[in-house]
Design a protein that fits this description.
globular; 7-stranded parallel beta sheet; Rossmann fold
């Protein structure tokens, strides 16, 4: 029981790891002894985050555009050239788009669905052999998908493709959990509520205090909240958890509040 949350020595891939939720998870992994690969579309940002996190452990930058199958394949091929196995795959890279219903464009729909749903599916497909190589009945390999409470509740903003994309990733998580159980791979999703990130910067500036008031715990999420949940799912403590969607939201979903 003394080492329930020990994840040292594992190898992880965190997409969208240069900022926001992905950076929080990556930092938690690196600080706890996980060799962590991060990817993001912007190479400079990815390299800078990896350099900062490398002051605490081992973090490697592999920039990749996961909005296309070519970008997904390029990232998977690079990981395969470096590692014989991976223990943890965090599908976090995401996008949103806001517009009125009358003006919402096909490009906004497709971009969000491609990055938030299609990318995680095909990256998991490509890295499945490396996950299987690490997996044992005693210590399964882990898939952690990052969803959103907007895939559970319905927000009042004009982000018409975002919520459905996150509902899809939640269900894809359950599908992975069912299909990969006999391969000793678990799959779970984290559904964040309000956390500071580039994606939420605009709403934080205009509605930050109002959002805080509607969170039952009366605060925005902090990096430790997100890192702690990911570490739990990646560790012995979470080894019997699969197919779960865990809201990390200060109680918003439990109280049936919408933002």
């Amino acid at each position: 029981m003394n080492n329930l949350f020990d994840i040292s020595g594992k190898v992880a891939v965190v997409t969208g790891g240069s900022r926001g939720i992905g950076e929080m998870i990556a930092e938690g992994f690196v600080a706890n002894g996980v060799k962590t690969y991060i990817s993001s579309r912007k190479a400079d940002a990815c390299d800078a985050t990896a350099a900062r996190l490398s002051e605490r452990g081992e973090c490697i930058s592999i920039p990749a555009d996961l909005s296309t199958t070519e970008g997904v394949k390029a990232l998977a091929d690079e990981i395969k050239s470096r590692e014989p196995h991976i223990d943890i795959l965090v599908n976090n890279a995401g996008a949103t788009w806001g517009a009125s219903i009358e003006e919402f464009p096909e490009a906004g729909w497709d971009k969000v669905m491609d990055i938030n749903v299609k990318g995680p599916f095909f990256l998991t497909q490509a890295l499945l052999p490396l996950l299987e190589a690490a997996a044992t009945p005693e210590d399964p390999a882990r898939i952690i998908n990052v969803g959103s409470i907007d895939g559970i509740n319905v927000n009042k903003m004009g982000t018409y493709s975002y919520g459905p994309s996150k509902a899809a990733i939640h269900h894809l998580t359950r599908t992975f959990a069912s299909h990969f159980a006999d391969r000793n791979i678990t799959a779970n999703a984290i559904a964040p509520g309000p956390f500071p990130s580039k994606m939420t910067a605009g709403i934080a500036q205009t509605m930050g205090e109002e959002i805080r008031k509607h969170v039952p715990l009366k605060r925005w999420g902090e990096p430790a909240d997100m890192a702690g949940t990911a570490i739990f799912l990646a560790s012995k403590a979470g080894g019997y958890v699969s197919g779960a969607v865990i809201p990390v939201d200060g109680g918003i979903v439990a109280s049936s509040r919408t933002l």
